[in-house]
Amino acid sequence: MFYLLAPFAQYHIVFNVFRYITFRTAMAAVTAIAISILLGPWLIRKLKALQIGETIRTDGPAAHRAKAGTPTMGGLLILAAIFGASLLWGNLGNRLVWVVILVTAGLGTIGFLDDYLKLTRRRPLKIREKFSAQSALALGAGAYLYLFPTDGATTRLVVPFVKGWVPDLGAVYILFAALLIVAASNAVNLTDGLDGLAMGPIIIAGVAFAALSYVAGHAVLSEYLFILKVRGAGELTVFCGALVGASIGFLWFNCYPAQVFMGDVGSLALGGAIGTLAVLSKAELLLPFIGGLFVIEAGSVILQVASFRLTGKRIFRMAPLHHHFELGGWPEPKVVIRFWIVSFLLALLALSTLKLR
How many CA atoms lie within 13 A of 130 on its CB side? Predict the structure, then answer.
């Protein structure tokens, strides 16, 4: 749409709106919601017909056993909506847009293979296999950004609460960027354990990175807020709009009680998208705040495993943390809504650092 209609602005002012990032972001969100709502029922019927149902762990909460057989791999719907809306409304001449699209697609492919093996062979990808594939993809993205930087800003790091110190990591940035992408991908995967739980924080993170990407790509706003100007980063806002719209559309079917789960094809891809957006918008150190809920969930698993191996005792009733509260008597919808509230507060804290420098 950008290439098709924006050139007509020279003939009539009404076509000028197709040049505006804000308009195309809104339209990308609406388009992604429409794709999700329209294709969702068909995909759910197709997954049921193919008997692609979720397998519930026997050691999980007893209340979850009723969810066995619920269609999974619904992340395909999310990816279709994101890519469809991004390709329709984005500026496809912007290489940063292609970086986030390709990383998201690559991690979605890894997740699809993991889901497929679980369903057909009852054996998912080994942790070593999955991590190696994720790392290779993320290192490739980091290496590309290092070798072809955007206005020299790629390897520099913006430190929250500090205005004058912008360290340059040099080649180490390749590893740093890869670590963020892989960590975000797996953290979202761990959080996706209750109906709609991961979607709320993904929507919140998408909105936050839309704001950060727009500011990073805006010469006046970036200078006013003392953040790095990243040429072309503003166009990532359109991708964020598609991400938010696709997540809202999927939440229509994934809210309690869920009609479909997104599976690893969705969670690995969405986590990777959030991590990549943090890298491209130069908000790397804000990611632990914007995606704070994902950090907390992943941290609970790490603490639980470490405690049990070192002392033989568990810190939580069950990890990830949402299961701890479930076993403590909180109904599933209450856990989800309260975790969304925590995620919202952490995102606000992250955005507040733009002025606290």
Answer: 23
Check the CA dihedral 266-343-203-141 and report its sign: negative
Residue 98 located in a structural domain? yes
Residue 156 β-bridge partners? 168
Contact call for residues 192 and 269 (beta carbons, < 8 A): no
Q: What is the 3-state secondary structure (H, E, C) of 207-242?
A: HHHHHHHHHHCCHHHHHHCCCCCCCCHHHHHHHHHH
Taking the alpha carbons of 43, 51, 103, 241 in that order, is the dihedral positive or negative? positive
Whether this model's pTM surpasses 0.85: yes
- Among 31, 19, 4, smallest CA distance to 234 is for 19
pLDDT tens string 313-332: 999 999 899 999 998 999 99
- 324 or 123: which leads in pLDDT: 324
User: From residue 67, how far is each of 51, 55, 62, 256, 274 by CA, in Å?
Assistant: 14, 8, 10, 11, 28
**Domain interval for residue 119:** 24-288
174 assigned to some structural domain: yes
* 340 within domain boundaries: no
